[in-house]
Design brief:
The protein has about 650 residues and is mainly beta. It has a single domain (about 1-275, about 280-305, about 315-645), classed as TonB-dependent receptor, beta-barrel domain (Maltoporin, Chain A), CATH 2.40.170. It has five helices and 36 strands. The protein is globular. The N and C termini lie far apart (about 55 Å). Belongs to the TonB-dependent receptor family. This is TonB-dependent receptor. Keywords: Cell outer membrane, Membrane, Receptor, Signal, TonB box, Transmembrane, Transmembrane beta strand, Transport. It is found in: Cell outer membrane.
C-alpha cells in the first residue's frame, strides 16, 4: 500500500507540474478554441453544490474580533449546536443531528481533522481576519471525502493582487482575566501579495458558578480553567504571468489549556498542550483549454495531556497532495476532475510503542451543467481507496430551478441527494485497550429539498431559505462500555435516522444614506434517532444524546455615522445526556450586546468596542456538569492604517 500511495503522490505532483491553472479566471490559451466561459459565480466548492444549503459566516464579525475562534463565531451566527467543555475548552460542532466526527473541516482544500480523533476542536481554530467561512449543510462525500456526513466547514483565504497596504493592531481586555492581542497586515502591488496575521488570547476563567452537584447549590469559583493561545498565519502569492500564480500558506496555532474539571469532581490538575502547524503550496496556470491546480501540504499536530496520574503524548504527521483540472466543455457545461493522496503517520502512546501509518487515495469528477437560464444541475462522484478498507462510491446529484424571477424578487427551488462515508479513525482501530480493527466504514444517504427567496427593493434587501432534509447512516460508529465494563470500545450501530428543517434569513435596511440596519436569524429543528430496546425488549426510537430538537440564533445591528449597536441571542433546547433519554440538560437562552465607534482621519482609523457577553447572567451547560461563564464584559481598541492608492 505504501507503493500505491507513493505512486499516487508522485503522479499527482508530476502531472500537476505539466498542467498549470488559474483559480481566478477560466480563460483559454491564445491557440485554443475560443469558447464563451460559463457564467458561474462562487468559490471552488459552491460552483458544484447545486441544490445544497450553503451559508457564509459574517466576515465583519471576523474583522472586528480578530482571534475569535470558530466555536465562538458559529455560536453567534448559525443554527448549529456547539458542545463545549467550558470557556476556551474543547468545543465541537455538528450538523443535522450527527456528531463532531461527521463534520468535515477544510482549509484551502485540505481536510484538517485530526486522523486520530476524526474531528476538529473549533476552540483551536481562530481563522485569519481575511478568511472566508462557508457552511455546507448535509452530506457531501463527493466534494469533501471521508467524514462529510452531516456537513462541512470550508475555510478559504482568497487571493487578491489589487494594490493595497494596510496594517491593523487591536488590544482587548475583559472579565475573568481575558486578554486578546491581534495584529494583521497586507501588502499587494499587482504581482505580489503578502498577508500576515497574529493573535494571542488568554483568560484565567476564574468565574463564579452554582455547583448543582452539592446540597443547596453553593456558589463556587472555577478552578484549573486558564488557557492561552497563540496563532500566526502567513500567505504569500506571486503572479508569474497573466495566467499563472504560485502561493504558499502557513498557519500555526499553539494552545495551552488547563482542563476544567466537572462539577463534583476532584481537581486532578489536568492540562493539555496543542500545537498545530499547517503548511501548503499551490501552483495554478493554464493547460489543455482549462485551468489546473497543483497543491501539496504538510501538517503536524501535537497533543500532550497530563494530570496527577496520567501522561499521554501524541504526534501526527500528515502529507497531502492534490491535482485538479477544470475545463469549460461548452458555454453551459463545466467539468472538474481531480485526484488526492494522503499519508498519516501517528506516534500515540495510547497505541503502544508502534507507529501507526495509513495511506489514502481518491479520484473524483464534478460536473456543473446549466441547460436553461433557470436551471443549474451538478453531478459529482468520488471513489476512495483506503488501506484496509473499501469505501463506497459516493455520488451526488443536485439542482436549482428559478421558479420566479422579477426585478424585486427571485424564488428558487432546490433539491439534492448525496451519498457519504467515514473511515474509522486511528483511535477507533488502534487504541489500547478497546480499539477495533474490524470496524466497517460508515456510509449514508442524505436527501434535501428547499426554497430560497431573494428580495431587492429600494431600501430593503434580504434572503430567506427553508430546507427540509432526511438522513440515514449505516454502520454508525459509537464508543460504549465493553462487555466486562472495564473500558470503552467502538462498535458499529446498525442504523441512525434523522430528519428536520432549517430556516435561515438575513436582511439589510437602509432608509437614508447614514443609517443602516442589518439582522438575521437561523433555526434548526432536528430529529436524530437510534432504535434501542426498552425494558420489554421492544425497539423504540431514541433521540441521540446531545442533539437538541430546537436550536435558534438571531442577531441585529444598527449603524449610523461611525457608530454601531448590536445584539445577538441564541436558544438551545433540551438535550438528553444518555442513550435511554432518562437524563437531560434544560433549555437555555443567551444574549450578548455590543456598541462601538469608528473614527477616521487621513489614512488612519480607530475603532472602540464594548461587549457584554451573557447579558442575562444565565446559568447553563452545553455539556453535563461543565460550568460556563456568567455575565462578563470586554473592551477593545483597534488602530488601522491604510495607504491610499
Amino acid at each position: 500500500m505504501l507503493r500505491v500511495f507513493l505512486t499516487g503522490l508522485v503522479g499527482t505532483l508530476v502531472l500537476g507540474a505539466s498542467s498549470p491553472e488559474t483559480a481566478y479566471a477560466q480563460a483559454t490559451l491564445p491557440d485554443s478554441v475560443q469558447i464563451q466561459p460559463i457564467h458561474i459565480s462562487g468559490a471552488r466548492y459552491t460552483r458544484f453544490a447545486a441544490g445544497t444549503k450553503l451559508a457564509t459566516l459574517d466576515t465583519l464579525l471576523l474583522q472586528r474580533q480578530p482571534g475569535i475562534t470558530l466555536a465562538e463565531a458559529l455560536q453567534q451566527r448559525s443554527g448549529l449546536y456547539l458542545k463545549s467543555y467550558g470557556n476556551g475548552m474543547t468545543a465541537t460542532v455538528a450538523f443535522r443531528g450527527t456528531t463532531a466526527s461527521h463534520t468535515a473541516v477544510l482549509w484551502n482544500g485540505f481536510n484538517i481533522a485530526l486522523p486520530t480523533l476524526g474531528l476538529s476542536d473549533f476552540a483551536l481554530l481562530p481563522p485569519a481576519a481575511h478568511s472566508t467561512v462557508t457552511l455546507q449543510h448535509g452530506p457531501s462525500g463527493a466534494l469533501h471525502g471521508s467524514g462529510a456526513i452531516g456537513g462541512a466547514v470550508v475555510l478559504e483565504n482568497p487571493v487578491s493582487f489589487t494594490p493595497q497596504q494596510t496594517l491593523r493592531v487591536q488590544q482587548e481586555a475583559g472579565s475573568f482575566g481575558h486578554q486578546r492581542t491581534a495584529a494583521q497586515g497586507t501588502y499587494a502591488n499587482g504581482w505580489l501579495t503578502l498577508t500576515s496575521s497574529y493573535t494571542r488570547t488568554a483568560a484565567d476563567n476564574n468565574f463564579k458558578y452554582q455547583d448543582i452537584t452539592q446540597f443547596g447549590q453553593p456558589t463556587q469559583e472555577q478552578e484549573n480553567a486558564a488557557f492561552h493561545q497563540n496563532s500566526f498565519a502567513q500567505d504569500v502569492h506571486v503572479k508569474l504571468s497573466a495566467t499563472q500564480r504560485i502561493s504558499a500558506r502557513a498557519w500555526w496555532v499553539n494552545t495551552h489549556r488547563q482542563i476544567q474539571p466537572a462539577m463534583g469532581s476532584a481537581n486532578s490538575h489536568a492540562q493539555q498542550e496543542d500545537e498545530n502547524l499547517r503548511l501548503m503550496t499551490e501552483w495554478q496556470g493554464q493547460l489543455a483549454k482549462g485551468t489546473t491546480t497543483v497543491k501539496a501540504a504538510y501538517f503536524k499536530d501535537r497533543l500532550d495531556y497530563q494530570d496527577d496520574g496520567i501522561q499521554s503524548l501524541s504526534m501526527v504527521h500528515t502529507y497531502q497532495a492534490q491535482l485538479e483540472h477544470e475545463r469549460t466543455l461548452l458555454p453551459n457545461l463545466l467539468l472538474q476532475v481531480g485526484t488526492e493522496a494522503q499519508r498519516f503517520s501517528a506516534e500515540v502512546q495510547g497505541y503502544g510503542k508502534e507507529q501507526q501509518q495509513e495511506n489514502r487515495f481518491s479520484a473524483y469528477a464534478w460536473l456543473r451543467y446549466d441547460p436553461l437560464d433557470r436551471l443549474q444541475v451538478s453531478l459529482n462522484v468520488r471513489q476512495a481507496w483506503v488501506e484496509g478498507f473499501n469505501p463506497p462510491v459516493t455520488p451526488t446529484l443536485g439542482a436549482n430551478f428559478t421558479l420566479l424571477e422579477r426585478p424585486a424578487s427571485l424564488l428558487t427551488l432546490k433539491g439534492n441527494v448525496s451519498k457519504s462515508y467515514r473511515v474509522p479513525t486511528l483511535n477507533d482501530r488502534f487504541w489500547r485497550p478497546g480499539g477495533n480493527p474490524n470496524l466497517q466504514p460508515e456510509n449514508g444517504w442524505g436527501y434535501e429539498a428547499g426554497v430560497a427567496h431573494t428580495a431587492k427593493h429600494a431600501h430593503l434587501n434580504g434572503q430567506t431559505e427553508l430546507t427540509l432534509y432526511k438522513l440515514k447512516v449505516q454502520d454508525w460508529i459509537q464508543w460504549q462500555p465493553s462487555a466486562n465494563g472495564a473500558y470503552s470500545e467502538p462498535v458499529n450501530l446498525q442504523t441512525v435516522r434523522g430528519h428536520g428543517l432549517e430556516l435561515d434569513t438575513r436582511w439589510t435596511y437602509q432608509p437614508v444614506a447614514f443609517w443602516t440596519f442589518t439582522g438575521g436569524a437561523a433555526y434548526g429543528y432536528t430529529i436524530s434517532e437510534q432504535a434501542l430496546p426498552n425494558a420489554r425488549a421492544e425497539l423504540q426510537d431514541r433521540q441521540l444524546f446531545y442533539v437538541p430538537k430546537h436550536k435558534a440564533a438571531a442577531w441585529a445591528e444598527a449603524r449610523c455615522k461611525g457608530w454601531w449597536v448590536g445584539v445577538d441571542g441564541t436558544f438551545t433546547g433540551l438535550r438528553y445526556t444518555d442513550q435511554d433519554n432518562n437524563n437531560w440538560l434544560d433549555p437555555y437562552a443567551l444574549l450578548n450586546a455590543s456598541i462601538g465607534k469608528t473614527l477616521h482621519w487621513s489614512s488612519f482609523e480607530a475603532q472602540i468596542q464594548a461587549q457584554v457577553q451573557n447579558l442575562t447572567n444565565t446559568q447553563y451547560q452545553t455539556m453535563a456538569y461543565r460550568a460556563m461563564p456568567s455575565r462578563h464584559f470586554r473592551l477593545s481598541l483597534a488602530l488601522q492604517w491604510a495607504r491610499k492608492p
